[in-house]
């Protein structure tokens, strides 16, 4: 069944939605995006996603086509029109089209392009949560501003393909001997003492909205959190490992580069954090 999508002020059947071939998102990946989860028809951590969107836009001197209130209204309208109970909403803002190709930014009054669409998906009852994910490690050769959520996602696509060819689920990226993050998620280990370890915030990782919520909830539950880098060797010897993202929530990792983590099954703390996260998300969704 055809979805209704949003393009620059219009709700359209997906087959009729178009963007210019001169759009800078298409030509230069000159665009930022957000992905917000929907559960029971409600949006998870919408304010967090909007705050990060504003920051990404600001870092690239991109202007926003609509206010946060209008953004919320568009999200809700798409949920209603597409009858989304569980799934995702993808949002992209580009620097628009100058009607030609030129590396320099177009005039400041060029209209940004705004596109949103929905994806129906089981986000809570994801069967992968029961088995856990397997990952490989690869070099992190991305640019130096991974904290900005741009649509330059070619390397993460190559990372996913490397994982696919290795018959695993994802790849953890490593720079200077330490894991930065997963191809589209933040990466964590749990030490033998039960401490949750994840890379500190910097320009080397995306500041995950799910990461922020998970760390806040972990600390509220009295769990110990350490924000620092860890190596693949340390991860292989960890008690547990997991990832977080808006689409996967907290998802256990059970194997890294062929080595089983802990018992090779989703760890107790990872499973508990997933439950805590989902409980909180259901309570706070809008
Ligand atoms: N890191 C990267 C590279 C990502 O692409 C994503 C999500 O797309 C994340 C982390 C997780 O961020 P969030 O929890 O906001 O989805």
Automatic annotation (TrEMBL):
Which superkingdom? Bacteria
Q: Which UniProt keywords apply?
A: Amino-acid biosynthesis, Branched-chain amino acid biosynthesis, Pyridoxal phosphate
List, alphabetically, the Gene3D superfamilies matched: 3.30.470.10, D-amino Acid Aminotransferase, subunit A, domain 2
Catalytic activity from the UniProt record: L-isoleucine + 2-oxoglutarate = (S)-3-methyl-2-oxopentanoate + L-glutamate; L-valine + 2-oxoglutarate = 3-methyl-2-oxobutanoate + L-glutamate; L-leucine + 2-oxoglutarate = 4-methyl-2-oxopentanoate + L-glutamate
Q: What GO cellular component entries does it have?
A: cytosol
- Keyword Oxidoreductase assigned to the entry: answer is no
Q: Give one GO molecular function term.
A: branched-chain-amino-acid transaminase activity
Q: Which cofactor does it need?
A: pyridoxal 5'-phosphate
Q: Which InterPro entries match?
A: Aminotrans_IV, Aminotrans_IV_CS, Aminotransferase-like, BCAT-like_C, BCAT-like_N, Class-IV_PLP-Dep_Aminotrnsfr
Q: What is its EC number?
A: 2.6.1.42
Biological processes, Gene Ontology terms: amino acid biosynthetic process; branched-chain amino acid biosynthetic process
Q: In which pathway does it act?
A: Amino-acid biosynthesis; L-leucine biosynthesis; L-leucine from 3-methyl-2-oxobutanoate: step 4/4; Amino-acid biosynthesis; L-isoleucine biosynthesis; L-isoleucine from 2-oxobutanoate: step 4/4; Amino-acid biosynthesis; L-valine biosynthesis; L-valine from pyruvate: step 4/4
Q: Which NCBIfam families match?
A: PRK06680.1
Q: Give a short account of what the protein does.
A: Acts on leucine, isoleucine and valine.
| Family per similarity comment | Belongs to the class-IV pyridoxal-phosphate-dependent aminotransferase family.
The protein here is known as Probable branched-chain-amino-acid aminotransferase
> What organism is this sequence from?
Consotaella salsifontis
């Amino acid at each position: 069944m055809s979805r209704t999508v949003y393009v620059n002020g219009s709700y359209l059947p997906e087959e009729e939605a178009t963007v210019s071939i001169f759009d800078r998102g298409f030509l230069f990946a000159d665009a930022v995006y957000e992905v917000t989860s929907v559960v029971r028809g409600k949006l998870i951590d919408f304010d967090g996603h909007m705050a990060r969107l504003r920051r990404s836009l600001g870092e690239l001197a991109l202007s926003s086509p609509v206010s946060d209130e209008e953004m919320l209204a568009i999200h809700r309208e798409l949920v209603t029109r597409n009858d989304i109970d569980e799934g995702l909403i993808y949002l992209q803002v580009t620097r628009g089209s100058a009607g030609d190709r030129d590396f320099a930014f177009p005039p400041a009054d060029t209209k940004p392009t705004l596109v949103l669409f929905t994806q129906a998906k089981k986000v809570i009852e994801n069967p992968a949560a029961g088995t856990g994910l397997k990952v490989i490690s690869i070099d992190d050769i991305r640019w130096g501003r991974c904290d900005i959520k741009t649509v330059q996602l070619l390397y993460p696509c190559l990372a996913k393909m490397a994982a696919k060819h290795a018959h695993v689920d994802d790849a953890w990226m490593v720079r200077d001997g330490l894991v930065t993050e997963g191809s589209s998620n933040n990466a964590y280990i749990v030490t033998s003492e039960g401490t949750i370890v994840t890379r500190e915030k910097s320009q080397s990782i995306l500041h995950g909205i799910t990461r922020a919520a998970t760390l806040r909830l972990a600390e509220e539950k009295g769990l110990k959190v350490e924000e620092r880098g860890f190596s693949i060797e340390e991860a292989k010897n960890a008690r547990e490992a997991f990832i977080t993202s808006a689409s996967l929530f907290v998802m256990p990792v059970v194997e890294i580069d062929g080595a089983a983590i802990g018992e090779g099954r989703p760890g107790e703390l990872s499973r508990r954090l997933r439950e805590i996260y989902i409980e909180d998300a259901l309570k706070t969704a809008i």
